[in-house]
Amino acid sequence: MNELMAARSLTTLPVVTLSGEAVAQIKDTVFDAEAGRITGFTLSGRGLLSGPLKQSLPWTAVHSLGHDAVMIVDAGVLADTPVVVARREAQQGRVLHARVLTDEGAQVGTVLDVVVEGGTSGRVVGFRIAAGKALVQGSRRRRHRVYVPRGETLAVSGRALVIPADATRYVADDLPSFAARVGAFRDGREGTPP
Amino acid sequence: MAWWIWLVVVIAAVAAVAMVTLAVQAGRRSGTVIAVRRRRGGKGAR
């Protein structure tokens, strides 16, 4: 598995061509909720006073997603923003702070971040959530933040994220241990007992 | 016009530029994560 990254950490990453020219920087990360894959990024300009760009970066045009930059072949691969996300979708599909529910109807927390796989896959592998009492027992003052794997039966909108109840058995406290948990979750779904 | 009026005008102009710059920078850093639904074979499908 490639390196895991939090989607919010991608914001402000430079978009760099293979010839070394930084043409933009990442603003929003857009993903297909059903397929569990990144579909593209909205962009901001690189200048001091540059705002959001009218062009976006479709995932099909990404050469590689790295820790320090998003690599593209050249600036010609950028597309108009509606190709990546329509304005209405952008307003309704914001998943940060959405409630996390299991398919058994228990609310287990709220979404803090989305965990994606770097490299060329663009897969969404899980979520960082502020865990509720149903998921992690503990003090109310110290909200516990954990990672949970993405389920195949995922449903997500700007209001709620639905994950399989068995995904809550594979929570992790940090990204390195989460990578192992994701593998165990997949094995468990393929029939191997957890 | 008194010299201090020009000083106030210059300070106000600098403050306005600084506020605009900060607002733009805040907007650029306010990225989020957006979930969309794509029909199979439709826009964005791979």
Automatic annotation (TrEMBL), chain A:
Signal peptide: none annotated. SUPFAM superfamilies: PRC-barrel domain. InterPro entries: PRC-brl_dom, PRC_barrel-like_sf. Residues 4-72 form the PRC-barrel domain. It comes from the Bacteria. This is PRC-barrel domain-containing protein. It comes from Streptomyces tuirus.
